[in-house]
Amino acid sequence: MKKRVWLFVLLCVALLLAGCSERREEESGYKIWYLNQDETSISYEYRELQAKTTEGMVSEMLELLQEDPADEEFVSALPEEVRILDSTLEGSRLSLDFSGEYSTMEKTREVLGRAAYVSTFCQLQGVEYVSFLVDGEPLTDTNGEMIGYMNDEQFIESAGEESTVYKTAELTLYFTNEAGDALVAEQVTMEYNSNISLEKLIVEELISGPISEGLYPMIPPETKLISISIKDGICYVNLDETFLESVYNVAEAVPIYAIVNSIVDNTDAEQVQISINGETNQLFRETISFNTIFEKNEELIEE
Q: Tell me, what's the pLDDT at 153?
């Protein structure tokens, strides 16, 4: 009887390991992102790449993105009539030039398609940013402003929720100068899921760091945003203790007012309260008390 039990257990383990092996095999390779049939969200299939160089992998990904996905529930990220005219990789920045048909897409399809392409290429170790051109001209937003280089964090979705609506935000984000003693404004166009609050988007982008050259991060990249909300004109920002770490050589006020100025400039909030793990009874670098309602600091902004 015991022998039969052990045989049954071994058989179950073998089946479980076989199942795990199959899942690992299914999930190997790179994610190639597509749209669902309703063109309301993006999803992916895993594909293996044969190339060994970054340039070669970019070429393979471009071919895969233009092919029909294996899953019939998905469609290609961009319409068939939109052609790739050229691709250029300079350092870690990839530029993709599309045919004029790109400009005829509906806004939702365009944003989702762009998210699919950027998310696909930013997996590559040698690619940090992607820019789009149309017939050789930089892609612009609805206001005619150049969108510039993008990374996958600019297309933020709520985990587990289907992205049905995307919004566009023109943001003024504050980072620091090379000396670390002043704030410098960066103008950024962001497409984001409507399930994400604008204030959350702002703080997460500040943690991610600047896109433009000549600007520098000032918040530890491992910092976690625990919660954020706006009530009665005050934005309550709750960060974890990583925010207190001195990873960058910047003045004490710079990280604080990068958050405060960015939130006040882009939302309905007029003041900001920052807490660490929900508590305000401590000092930031032994200088600035969190038991304070902060207002925008114009004097720190470098002209």
A: 67
